[in-house]
Structure to design on (466 residues):
């Protein structure tokens, strides 16, 4: 735990500021995802599904709590760390309001996936403890399996759904990338973490090229997730 | 754990059926309370308060999960056990929709309180394991303290609020008693648990008298809770 890169969040380096941004972003993302999942559960067709979704929502709250506590540990007010990300994340959710139970499942799956890829990418250059926390918070295999199975089943029952849900997924990822670009522009320390990592592949490339390459990688991972749900990209 | 009254939920006695009703009622109450708290958190004035309320909601989900698992353990489908209580609990929530953050806090406090009194009363005659589970699920001291402090502070800042919030609390308890009477009429096995316990005080009294006496006791406890929030009854 004490090995790894020397930078720790207590040092006032670009990386340290990036880490606070990362934790703040992830904390607010978990909190708002908790609220959205709880809202969406009202669309669930059965009491059992409602209960299941409530469980997913509660897991998000648990993650929020851990990230919140980590920020407190670092001497940072969690609310101040989250504040810069309220507008872009709220905007993403406002622009991607599910109109059905299935749309809400696809959103949870796609949203988690994109967010997970992004956070893992950024966490590579964070200090060890932050990286472990972020990685731990992101490992929710049971949930992804439950959702993929439900969507697959629905598409098998009514193949017409496949095209509509794939379009919905494309809108989700488009809106996510547009908010991510906004965040990258507004939060240089966070973007720096992303770019430094991207630059490992190609030290010649400028910041924008690195960001584009990372976004391309996220898009590939998105296609793999669509396949897992039985949707084509 | 193996001492205590002989009846266990696996025996098809009135008490056993009452216990399944109790667990089903409590499970659905926790699930719906989870959803309502998560909804109400949107009214919270700050990110910190939102996070706090999300934590309360997640606690309800944890309780739901434990009650759900206990029903499964007893060989009962949790959804079947919850079903009879969906209409009365949804009706209570529909008739008591908070219009402000403070109303939502008072509702959480009053609703928890009434529910807790009621469940504890009924659980007295349940089997040991059920009683322990119910009592454990109901012990949420930190939360009650947080809410009472917030309401007290708001009333201290603006004394005009006291009367309005006390009226709101009266409406909450009135609607709860009306739904409880409906449940007692529709679920004789559950009502029997309540009445048997009430009858310990006065073996001569009929069912209705016992129920009324219990309701009177609940109302007294309600007045004590109003005082704790700085409201008069």
């Amino acid at each position: 735990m004490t090995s790894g890169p020397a930078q720790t969040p207590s040092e006032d380096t670009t990386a340290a500021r990036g880490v606070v941004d990362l934790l703040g972003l992830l904390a607010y993302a978990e909190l708002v995802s908790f609220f959205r999942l709880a809202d969406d559960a009202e669309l669930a067709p059965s009491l059992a599904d409602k209960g299941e979704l409530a469980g997913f929502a509660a897991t998000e709250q648990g993650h929020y709590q851990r990230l919140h506590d980590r920020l407190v540990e670092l001497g940072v007010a969690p609310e101040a760390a989250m504040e810069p990300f309220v507008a872009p994340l709220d905007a993403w959710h406002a622009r991607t309001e599910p109109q059905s139970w299935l749309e809400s499942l696809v959103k949870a799956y796609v949203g988690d996936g994109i967010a997970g890829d992004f956070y893992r990418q950024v966490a590579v250059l964070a200090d060890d403890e932050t990286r472990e926390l972020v990685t731990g918070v992101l490992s929710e295999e049971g949930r992804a399996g439950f959702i993929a199975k439900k969507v697959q089943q629905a598409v098998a029952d009514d193949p017409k759904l496949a095209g509509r849900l794939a379009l919905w997924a494309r809108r989700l990822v488009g809106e996510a990338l547009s908010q991510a670009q906004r965040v990258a522009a507004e939060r240089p320390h966070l973007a720096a973490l992303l770019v430094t990592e991207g630059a490992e592949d190609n030290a010649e490339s400028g910041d924008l090229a690195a960001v584009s390459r990372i976004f391309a990688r996220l898009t590939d991972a998105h296609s793999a997730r669509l396949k897992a749900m039985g949707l084509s990209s």
Notes: Chain A has one domain: 14-228. The radius of gyration of chain A is 18 Å.
